[in-house]
Amino acid sequence: MTTDAYLIDKARVRRSFDRAAGTYDAAALLQREVRERMLERLDLVKLTPRAVLDAGCGTGHASAALSVRYRQSQVISLDIAMGMLKKTMAARSLVQRLFGFDRRHAVCADIERLPLAAASMDLVWSNMAIQWCNDLDLAFTEMQRVLKPEGLLMFSTLGPDTLKELRAATRQDDAHVTVSRFIDMHDIGDALVRAGFNAPVLDVEYFELTYDDVLGVMRDLKAIGAHNAAEGRHRGLQGRGFLQHVQARYESFRRDGKLPATYEVIYGHAWKPQARQELPDGLSPVQFRPRASSST
What we know:
Elements: H1 10-20, H2 24-27, H3 29-42, E1 51-55, H4 61-69, E2 74-79, H5 82-90, H6 94-99, E3 104-108, E4 121-127, H7 136-146, E5 147-158, H8 164-170, H9 185-194, E6 198-211, H10 214-223, H11 239-250, E7 259-271
Parallel strand pairs: 1-2, 1-4, 2-3, 4-5
Antiparallel strand pairs: 5-7, 6-7
Helix pairs in contact: 7-9, 8-11
């Protein structure tokens, strides 16, 4: 299967999340849990940001939590789907909107092309969004660009073992993609370094959601907008025969009366380095080290 087959159709992603805006919150149990764990990790970070970017904000719960945590900050909620942004902004309280206490703003854009000024953000936050990128190097480079020196990037994403049961059950041939490909933690770390981040820290956690049947897995994925958006997907309807095939193969994973759906969640954070000292052309900094004293 060619690499191009795994490219994400961004127009399909936008449409899927637009349609899912009304059903997303009820089904996004994993996203909610990961968000809370990311917020707990912020407790360990000494940071007082004036400007925060929620990149891939979904229905805006992280934007709201970040606004509460950093009350003097401007929080920008960014998402590729306008439907998600409308849910995000509608959730603001009437008092906040009437009296201007809400310092949140919405931007509809792709995180691979951020329409923000360089060095304008103190914190870039992204929960379960970068797996929808085609070029992770570009996404991280953009995030590094918009961060101020010593700014923080904190994110979560999905690793290769995500939906491994569904991948096995839906596999038919090598010519088509049935489940998106997710990037390994070590490759993500390498991409952070290439983008110019300092000392990235990554770790992984596994979650297992359980269902009565495979249709429950598919319904939840549809409800959060997580359709197969790979260019190499089947373009036509698969039909009842395909569904029966998937149901039969997925049954091999049943344990204790339930079907599992595995999610590999990768957490990461990294800092943008301090700004380098600019010197006139032809000059370079020289460091002097004190000589060790000797006794006579």
